[in-house]
Amino acid sequence: TDRLQIIVDYVENINGKKILDIGCCYGYFSHKLAQMGAEAVGIDICEPKIEVCKLLSDCYNLPPSNPKFYRSSYQEYLRNGGYFDIILFLSQFHHDIRANIKTAWNDLNLVSRHTDLLLIDLCEGTAGGCIQNWEPELMLQHTEFTELIPLKPSQRPRMLYALRKS
């Protein structure tokens, strides 16, 4: 997808980076980044998707050790520790915001304590299921991140952002 290219262009050198892919679904980003030399971990709450991820690793000729896949919520996984060079939080946070904004901010702050670089996309605007009247700068107020960098839009209406610590 174009999001993968945007990520690779922004990070520049994926090789050797420890990456957490939150809500990995079928592991597309985890698999592709592992092929580029990253140490990738994909998590999803859906056990059947995790099983498919593991089967797809074989199709990609990747060892079972990289990428690794776990059935877990990101909150539970991060509460057990671990620090990542990069966390991918794609196609997820706008659902959390709509479900419970206070919990979503607490959870995003939890994510910010486990990385210096978060790549997050948000469904903003008037499309069904999107967040309306959204101010991306709010993510800085509720986390340990200090920089918000809008990356070029991937698929409309989603916008990809990098959140960094100085």
Termini separation comes to 29 Å
Number of domains: 1
Shape estimate: globular
Q: Can you write the helix and strand succession as a string?
A: HEHEHEHEHHEHEE
For the biggest sheet, the summary is: 7 strands, mixed
Summarize the structure.
This protein is α/β, with parallel strands linked by helices and 166 residues long. 36% of the residues lie in helices and 22% in strands.
Describe the fold and architecture.
This is Methyltransferase domain-containing protein. Residues 19-105 form the Methyltransferase domain. InterPro entries: Methyltransf_25, SAM-dependent_MTases_sf. It comes from marine sediment metagenome. The protein is globular. With 166 residues, it is α/β, with parallel strands linked by helices. α2 (28-35) links the parallel β1 (18-22) and β2 (39-44). The chain has helices spanning 2-11, 28-35, 47-59, 74-79, 93-99, 101-112, 138-141, and strands at residues 18-22, 39-44, 68-71, 86-89, 117-123, 147-150, 158-164. The chain has a single domain, classed as Vaccinia Virus protein VP39 (Rossmann fold). 30% of the residues are buried. The two termini are 29 Å apart. A 7-stranded mixed β-sheet has the order 3-2-1-4-5-7-6, covered by helices on one side.
Topology diagram in text:
Blueprint: H1 2-11, E1 18-22, H2 28-35, E2 39-44, H3 47-59, E3 68-71, H4 74-79, E4 86-89, H5 93-99, H6 101-112, E5 117-123, H7 138-141, E6 147-150, E7 158-164
Parallel strand pairs: 1-2, 1-4, 2-3, 4-5
Antiparallel strand pairs: 5-7, 6-7
Helix pairs in contact: 5-6
Which terms would index this structure?
166 residues; SAM-dependent_MTases_sf; Methyltransferase domain-containing protein; Rossmann fold; Methyltransf_25; 7 strands; alpha/beta
